[in-house]
């Protein structure tokens, strides 16, 4: 499929995991793609790479401007850079709350703000935000992370309303637990990584983790010119975690 032929895309957090899989898939489907990441080491052709910290407005504006100059315009922004946090409301101090909100929520605002003037010039403009099942389901020990993703969900709807008449579509994907380096780090830090992995797999009705490629496929679907009537939606890519209620196996 070459639905992105002639189009350009920018993927934040595109050096690893879901962002990397998305950048590679958009390129396979014909787009010219630039990655914006805190650490773009290891990102090579055909992807273009720009170093930026989404917590720093000047750094984001400079990287977006440089990427757009190299790409010759911008049709698709994938707002994907994000970090995790664990704990109940009693566990994370104010500094950590501000830090994670700054990356996961304000970071998306900064890149969108820098990209919008360029997206307005596109005939197929689309923004896709990486949200999470944590925005729509209560998960234990994820108070701060869930609050940021709930904000991303609301932000997606508000942005979709603000920009629909400019021809810019805004949607988000809500992955379940996805098998990325992030989850690898989480498992490595667990007392019993095998038991932790089994628990995460069992939490999803599909009985397995979501792959980065499956999330990338959903992001590409939402970003594609073939989805021109789709805006203001949250697409679950979670093995049924949000919507299904199974009985125990065999019953
Ligand atoms: N892995 C999961 O289970 C899962 C589930 C739901 C949602 N998500 C979301 O998917 C997105 C990607 O997660 P992943 O699992 O691929 O993680 P990952 O850690 O593999 O990749 C995240 C990338 O973001 C970059 N990044 C982090 N902070 C940044 C900053 N301040 N500025 C610029 N780049 C920065 C990192 O360098 C890294 O390349 C995140 O928004 C995350 O919340 C992940």
Cα-based radius of gyration, to the nearest Å: 18 Å
What class would the helix/strand composition place it in?
Answer: alpha/beta
Fraction of residues in β-strands: 15-25%
N-end to C-end Cα span:
42 Å
Mean pLDDT: 97
Low-confidence stretches: none
Main sheet summary: 7 strands, parallel
Major beta sheet, strand line-up: 3-2-1-4-5-6-9
Query: Which range best describes the helical content: under 10%, 10-25%, 25-40%, 40-55%, 55-70% or over 70%?
Result: 40-55%
Say which molecules are bound, naming each kind only once: nicotinamide-adenine-dinucleotide
Summarize the helix and strand pattern as letters: EHEEHEHEHEEHHEHE
The dominant shape is globular
Care to count the β-strands?
A: 9
Number of helices: 7
Describe the structure in your own words.
The chain has seven helices and nine strands. By secondary structure, it is an alpha/beta fold. Strand 1, helix 1 and strand 2 form a beta-alpha-beta unit. The protein is globular, with a radius of gyration of 18 Å. The mean pLDDT is 97. It binds nicotinamide-adenine-dinucleotide (NAD). The site of nicotinamide-adenine-dinucleotide has 28 residues, from helix 1 and helix 5.
Task: Give the topology, please.
Elements: E1 8-12, H1 17-28, E2 32-37, E3 48-51, H2 57-71, E4 76-79, H3 94-119, E5 125-130, H4 143-163, E6 168-175, E7 178-179, H5 181-188, H6 193-203, E8 210-211, H7 212-223, E9 234-237
Parallel strand pairs: 1-2, 1-4, 2-3, 4-5, 5-6, 6-9, 7-8
Helix pairs in contact: 1-7, 2-3, 3-4
Features:
251 residues, alpha/beta, two-stranded parallel sheet, globular, binds nicotinamide-adenine-dinucleotide
């Amino acid at each position: 499929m070459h639905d992105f032929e002639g189009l350009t895309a920018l993927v934040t957090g595109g050096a690893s995991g879901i962002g990397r899989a998305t950048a590679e898939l958009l390129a396979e489907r014909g787009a010219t793609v630039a990655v914006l990441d805190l650490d773009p080491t290891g990102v090579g052709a055909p992807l273009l790479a720009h170093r930026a910290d989404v917590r720093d407005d000047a750094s984001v504006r400079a990287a977006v401007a440089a990427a757009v100059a190299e790409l010759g315009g911008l049709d698709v922004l994938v707002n994907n850079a994000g970090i995790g946090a664990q704990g109940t409301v009693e566990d994370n101090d104010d500094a950590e709350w501000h830090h994670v909100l700054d990356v996961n929520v304000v970071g998306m605002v900064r890149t969108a703000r820098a990209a919008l003037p360029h997206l307005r010039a596109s005939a197929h403009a689309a923004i896709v935000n990486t949200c999470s099942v944590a925005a729509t389901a209560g998960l234990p020990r994820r108070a701060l992370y869930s609050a940021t993703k709930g904000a991303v969900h609301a932000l997606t709807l508000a942005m979709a309303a603000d920009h629909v008449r400019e021809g810019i579509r805004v949607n988000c994907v809500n992955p379940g637990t996805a098998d990325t380096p992030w989850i690898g780090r989480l498992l490595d830090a667990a007392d019993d990584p095998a038991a932790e992995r089994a628990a995460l797999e069992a939490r999803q009705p599909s009985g397995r983790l979501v792959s980065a490629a499956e999330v990338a496929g959903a992001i590409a679907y939402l970003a594609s010119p073939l989805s021109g009537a789709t805006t203001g939606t949250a697409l679950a890519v979670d093995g049924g975690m949000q919507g299904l209620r199974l009985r125990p196996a065999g019953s």
